[in-house]
Structure formats: structure tokens, C-alpha cells
Design a protein that fits this description.
It is a single chain. By secondary structure, this protein is α/β, with parallel strands linked by helices. Helix content is 33%, strand content 33%. It folds into two domains: 78 residues, Alpha-Beta Plaits; 187 residues, 3-Layer(aba) Sandwich (Rossmann fold), CATH 3.40.50. α4 runs parallel beside α5.
Length: 271
Amino acid sequence: MSYKAVHLICDEDLEETLSFLLQESGYEGSSYEKGRLIAYCSSEEYDEKSLYKILSNFNLIPEKITDVANENWNVMWEENFKEARIGDHIQARAPFHPSSGARHDIIISPKMAFGTGHHETTQLTAISLEKLDCKDKQVLDMGCGSGLLAILASQKGANRVLAIDYDANCVQNTKENIQLNKAKNVDVLQADSVSQLTEKFDIIVSNIVKNINLRLLPEFVARLNKDGHLILCGFLDQDLDELKKAATAQGLKLVEQNIDNNWLQTQFIHE
């Protein structure tokens, strides 16, 4: 398989937002160094019109677009993969990074799955989950990406963790990372909803885009135990009122909200 590498010159404070938007548009990962963002997309998925529509919001055009062979793409991604310190107690790192001795030392194989710990939404969600009591709880990680959140829940003593993603690459990467971390009680499922599930959960985390989170909200509530916690991320701060209205209509109570660089993370309790 071949890939397109889109080279962009942008400020560091724009890098995370651009990476997230491109990932939601089908890009499989990105790297950033010295003012240059390189985003990778399979040649089959590459859509020039969609790319330019995203970039027009920031008055950007590509510096260049190049073709990259699969093996070279993986090497470049791994070489640019940086460890991430998340809050006070979580470290996300590649196998070749040394451990910092963090309470939750999570190894992520750099395979371009989203949720490696670098984006604000992943960090906000992880910090919120880390504060919850997961011991002997049932936890669902929707849109698991690299599996970081599922592994965190396992490390915190969850009795059962189910990680779901629609992307086969993310499912495979999550399975690899589960093995690397020797995470217990974690199952992985490829799916784009939770409607097929019959079990219920004490904690549900969903770090995906706004429209999908809102669409899945009734399904989340149906699968959430009474007094269970629902952590949602992938919204912008301007979406708070819309999200609160939709959640309240489903019998949810807002108990936490945090914002980082305009990204909004919320936590609700099922009353």
C-alpha cells in the first residue's frame, strides 16, 4: 500500500487541531517538527477536495504532497514519535522510550492509530478517567484508537474493559498495545456503534467527533448502569450548551467539564 504525505507549514499551536481534523477525515497519523506538519493518508483514501476544504479554514495550502512507500512511512512515523506525559500520573511512550516511573506507564506501539496521548482530547479524557475508581468496574472505550484509555482502565483494576473502533488498523494496534502492556481483562471489537451490545457498563468513555458522539448518546445511555459515568470528548468549547441539552434529555447530569486549547471534555452521571 502507498501513502500520500501532505507537508504543511503551520504554527505549533495549530498543529494539534489540524492533526485531529485530518485524522477524522481519514488520515492515519501525522508528525510535527520545527514548524512543519506532515500528515499521512493512504493513496486510496486521499481526497484533495476534502483536504483543501479543511485547510481553507486556516488559510493554509500544502507546501507539497509526496508519495511514500509503506515501509518508509512507518519508519518516518516511528522516528518522529514522542513520548507524552499526561497529567501527574500517566506516561504514554513507545517501546524504545525509557520509563519515567509514572504510576501508569503505558507503552504505545507507534502505528499511527489516533489516541497516542499527544492530542488534547486524549489527554483530557485520560485525566478524567484516571480520577475515577475503576476497580472491579465494567468499562467501555468507544473509539479506542491506540487503546490507551482501555489500557489505563485495566491498570486501574477494571474487571472488564471493552475497546471498540470502526477502523481495522486501530483494532489491530489496540490488540498489539494490550499485549505490550500485559493488560488484563481487555477485549477488542471492530464496530461503529454499541447497539449490538447487551451488557451494561459502569464507565463509558468516548473520544470521537461531535456528531457521532451525539448520534450515539442514546446508545451510551442504554448501556450505562444507573449512577454510571459517561466521559465525552471531541467537542469544542462552543458545543457545551448543545451537548448539555442533548445529555439532559437522556437523563444525564453534568458533573465535570474541562477545556484545553478550545477542546471540551465532559463527564456525566446517569441519574
